[in-house]
Design goal:
This protein has 4 helices and no strands. By secondary structure, the protein is mainly α. The chain is elongated.
Length: 152
């Protein structure tokens, strides 16, 4: 006789209030995803025009010299990198919202599973990014302290 655990027989059921919470969450995630894409578009537009703005400033503002044009290129690259990093959590959030809305509209549990996978990816990306930034801040702090000690 083969025994099975309680967890193998466990099946999660969502009541109406949980479904309504998930539907509302999907609507907000979809909206925030669209707004995120608009924000990324603005960042890319700023990146494109940063080179032109700083090269014009180098011609009109005395003292900037040749650094203005190269500074614009640096700012453009930094803004493009910011847009690339910002794209992934926005994409995952948008896909969660759109797939969840589809899942409830078509009563498709597979689409809901896929959408929850996107939500997991969204939070996983944000968690890894947060840990990376905290490590970077820690390294900056350590090098700042070491620099101040060696400067004495």
């Amino acid at each position: 006789m083969e025994e099975s655990s309680v967890f193998e027989k466990f099946e999660l059921q969502l009541d109406e209030s949980a479904k309504n919470f998930l539907k509302e969450t999907a609507k907000w995630a979809y909206f925030l995803g669209i707004m995120g894409f608009v924000g990324i578009a603005f960042i890319v537009v700023i990146a494109i025009f940063a080179g032109a703005i700083f090269s014009t400033m180098s011609n009109t503002v005395p003292g900037m010299g040749a650094m203005g044009g190269s500074f614009g290129a640096i700012i453009s690259v930094v803004y493009i990198l910011i847009a690339i990093v910002y794209f992934f959590p926005v994409y995952y959030l948008f896909k969660f919202g759109s797939n969840t809305k589809t899942a409830f509209r078509e009563n498709d549990s597979e689409a809901l599973t896929v959408s929850l996978g996107y939500l997991k990816s969204h939070f996983k990306f944000l968690g890894i990014f947060t840990i990376s930034i905290l490590v970077l801040y820690g390294l900056i702090l350590v090098f700042a302290v070491l620099g101040s000690l060696f400067a004495r």
